[in-house]
UniProtKB/TrEMBL annotation:
Keywords: Receptor, Transcription, Transcription regulation
Domain NR LBD: 78-281
Xref: Pfam families: Hormone_recep
Domain of life assignment: Eukaryota
The protein's name in its UniProt record: NR LBD domain-containing protein
Residue ranges, annotated region (Disordered): 72-101
Keyword hit for Transcription regulation: yes
InterPro entries (alphabetical): NHR-like_dom_sf, Nucl_hrmn_rcpt_lig-bd, Nuclear_hormone_rcpt_NR2, Nuclear_hrmn_rcpt
């Protein structure tokens, strides 16, 4: 009697395509006021940061060896020889591996660089801000990037506040920098507490970008003031339309602006290593 032997072919390595960049929140289906026109244009400008991955390439099947003594024994030993068993792992290896304190600090710097990059991209893609001359845009971004950075950090998928807390607890900071860290944490916490939707967030960014108090003289200062008034009015009417039972929401959103502007630029440079040459390269 002949026995046919068959082998199961190995499955090829699995491949998972990168996850596409997700779009931001959807725009409400109806908005009758003409002031929502710019808001609808700006609603889709949420640059998310999604990270795709691929499988490790391992096969889905594992080869199982038969439980014969002659297979388990080393080739240079007789079949009846005892197979030495591996020794128990060292107690040091059984302990969980912890990230060193410097690793969390490096992670914070990398996350901050990504947050700043996305914040500047959103500003450059802002439909109202793009109508200003290029020189005015550069002058405004040179002074408004800290507020944009903090607002973006409040909406980052990773909890920046938690990461900052770990780093601040493990790194020796001076009294002045500790005070700045508390200001940063309070500003980010206020932004997170608002739970802004994509349109509210974009209009608030437009208000931050329409600065009339730039140190450099703007060529289109009148246009900046006009855009600022339009953004205030659009945000107020949008919040009144979408949240009629929260009349104080517009005032709460405006109260976030002084908290964002109170954070000193030098503290962001020192804590997150956000170098000036990186900003507009």
């Amino acid at each position: 009697m002949r026995i046919r032997s068959s082998t199961c072919p190995c499955r090829p390595p699995l491949y998972m395509p990168p996850v596409p960049m997700a779009a931001a929140g959807e725009v409400p289906p109806s908005a009758s006021s003409s002031l929502f026109a710019s808001a609808r244009l700006l609603a889709g400008l949420d640059f998310g940061c999604s990270a795709g991955g691929s499988d490790g390439g391992a096969s889905a099947f594992r080869r199982v060896l038969p439980h014969h003594r002659d297979v388990m024994a080393p080739p240079d030993l007789p079949p009846d020889a005892a197979v030495p068993m591996p020794c128990a792992p060292s107690p040091d290896l059984q302990q969980p591996q912890h990230r060193p304190s410097g690793g969390e600090e490096v992670l914070l710097h990398e996350v901050a660089a990504q947050v700043l990059l996305v914040a500047l991209r959103r500003a450059r893609a802002n439909e109202l801000f793009r109508t200003l001359p290029a020189g005015d845009q550069a002058a405004i971004l040179d002074e408004a990037w800290p507020q944009l950075f903090l607002l973006q950090a409040a909406h980052w998928p990773l909890d920046v506040l938690l990461l900052m807390g770990h780093v601040a607890a493990s790194v020796a900071l001076g009294a002045e920098l500790q005070s700045s860290v508390r200001q940063i944490q309070q500003a980010i916490a206020q932004c997170k507490a608002l739970a802004l939707d994509p349109i509210e967030r974009t209009l608030l960014e437009t208000i931050l970008l329409c600065r009339k108090d730039c140190q450099r003289e703007l060529c289109a200062s009148g246009q900046v003031e006009c855009l600022l008034e339009q953004s205030h009015l659009a945000l107020q009417q949008y919040m009144r339309h979408t949240r009629p039972h929260s009349p104080a929401r517009f005032g709460q959103a405006l109260l976030v602006l002084p908290a964002l502007r109170a954070v000193p630029h030098a503290a962001l440079h020192e804590l997150f290593l956000l170098r000036r040459q990186r900003l507009f390269a």
